[in-house]
Amino acid sequence: MRSQRSVSPARIAGCGGCAGHGRPGYTREWQTDTTSPTGMRAVWVRCPEKCTATSRAASVARQVAERKAPAESAVTPAAVPAPAPAVKSAPASTSQRPARKAAPSRWKAAPRRAVAAVALDVVADQLVPDVDDIGAPAGVSLADVFAWIGSGLPVRVERAHPDGRGGDGMVCLSASALAAVKLPAKMPTTDKAWERVTAKLRKAAAGAGLELGEKFGPVFAAFRRRGEDGPRTSVRVVLVPWLGQAEGAQRAELPLALAGEELDALALARRVRAFVADVGVMPGNTTATTGWRLLDALRPRTAYEVSEDGKRVSRPREGALPAGDCAVPVAAGGRHPLTRERQKARELICEEEDFKQWARPLSDIEAARPWAVAVDVCASFLSVTETLRLPAGELEFTASPTWSAKSAGLWLCDFTGLETETDLPHPATFTGLPPTGPGWYATPTVDYMAREYGFDPATIREAYVSTATLPFLREWTTAIRGGYKRCMAVLGLTDGMDDVAFLAAHQEHKATGGDADKGDALVLAAAYKGIYKGGIGKWADKGTAQYPGTEEGTALWLEKIAGQWWYRPEVRHHILAAARIAAHRRMRKTFRLTGRAPFAVNVDSYLYAADAPSPLELLPRTEDGRPVPGALRLGAAPGSFKHESSVPMAAVAEAMSERLHPSRLTHEFTTAGRPVITDTEV
């Protein structure tokens, strides 16, 4: 595509839609042409503004006036000269419409459908994008690539919320594209070679009126600021063959590849487009950062409005999480000095976590069964976060508080003496063992113990209660769950499947057979799983990779992480408590209906004794044979279960006799109960 470079006032020959194309009233576009060696053909099309000679003259006059006027006295809509009436023989044009407000830049053209990512590859010795309605660069040089990037490509991420902001799109260069523009196939490893490459990139970008970000590596920013010559541009350029080669500050990974997969530009762009279509944001360098970026995009913390004096000002949105270090002593996170002080003084802290390596002795009946069947919860966090009421405000300490299940907070409770099922892990502790004294618990745990086990909330001694309680992960959950379920459907796993059909489909769902759609779905499903897991972990980010455990590192951590709005360990406590309680509720209901209880639990993996290497005998059914809501059931939906593996009971008994947790065996056996054969054993 021809670069839309700036021209002097004397050379302006068109309106805001066609100026710079060299042919008044027309713009040059690239269209698909199967008869062309490059597959593309340049054609002249009518100006998107449908201008006439008369309206162009008025537009040129306005543009000249804007360029001559000083910045502080920009032309207002009232000062724009009205176009002369069109001649009778002229077709309907913009000159016959009411005068529009002056655009801040003459480069504001008719909007085009935005795409989140585009790959640039070589076809028949020409650089060709993988999106049909985006034109190709005019040539095969690096200068042509940057001129193409700076021509106003519709490569961007639209805002996910009216008060939010859009994001940069992505341009992915393949290995053949790097060779065509004479960039090395591998990232430079010496300072001298790196300086040559960066100088070459900056020079080519400057020739197109673009700047490049300070951070260089496999991914870097290319942009043109508002008000500069040319359309405002901001994209991320990805030199795909370089991904995985950088270290340190230059490292920039994208979590959209299978383990060991050599990712190509076409696959990356295709997956990025699907990712953005599913959740609405561009993937970040890690799944954890993507998680909180998604939350910020779906629930912006600020809104913008026009003040009485006409200025655009921001204000906090209702329910916005507060900024600054909001940590309280009992839930400040593992790295926070407040936590270390309490641990040193042997004072209680909140320890809401998933069940971790709980196990009980096998009963005689269980030990006589030949198999241990491991089932795994699908997207356990997503099964609770949509409606979970979370602490949106700061936590305020209160003595002798008034209990309310609708208030998010941390409560000092004593659950000792309450009778619970001995065949199940204790619901209030991550160890699954009964508590030996008082402890700090999040609202979901206290509510469950009060409703199901007779705990008296009037005995609560102290509490930290949030000033605001909201289910602020609702939109976040909906977006991730929607993308996850779409990918599962592509892989053949849908809601409402027959149990036998589901087990068979799950057994084969990772065998893509070279199908690009299934390969993409497998990668994206793993990415969505990483987002909700990493995003929840981000609420209590220790940041040890960026800020080592020195005094200086801790000071920087307190400023850069603990002082951010997304550092809220008490939010993580509520989510983990709710997920653990939901798991216990499913185990308890299944136990009451079938008499079957897991003998070992580790996070979201449960081991049951069974007569066959299949979970079918464990599933409770209604009288008409349907799965029982709220109990153990198979499926791909969040909160449902899948078959993880089947372990011979003899191997389980041996591991437990050696005081090893049997969950470690689940990765050593298949769902058919056969030992897993590793590559080294083949």
Report on this structure.
The protein is globular and about 90 Å long. The chain is built from 15 helices and 22 strands. A hairpin with a 7-residue loop joins strand 1 (26-32) and strand 2. It has 682 residues and is α+β, with helices and mostly antiparallel strands. 28% of the residues lie in helices and 16% in strands. Among the domains are: 1-110, no CATH class; 114-285, no CATH class. The strands form 6 sheets. Strands 3, 4, 5, 6, 7, 8 and 9 form a 7-stranded mixed β-sheet that branches. The chain has a 5-stranded antiparallel β-sheet with strand order 12-20-21-13-22. The chain has a 4-stranded antiparallel β-sheet with strand order 15-18-16-17.
Feature tags:
single chain; alpha+beta; 16% strand; seven-stranded mixed sheet; 22 strands; disordered N terminus; 15 helices; 682 residues; 28% helix
What general outline do the C-alpha atoms trace? globular
Amino-to-carboxy terminus distance: 53 Å
**How would you state the average pLDDT, rounded?**
85
- Compute the gyration radius: what is it? 30 Å
What is the beta-strand fraction?
Answer: 15-25%
Helix % is 25-40%
Helix count from the secondary structure assignment: 15
Low-confidence stretches: 1-11, 34-40, 70-111, 248-252
Can you summarize the main beta sheet?
Answer: 7 strands, mixed
Specify the structural class. Answer: alpha+beta
Strands, count: 22
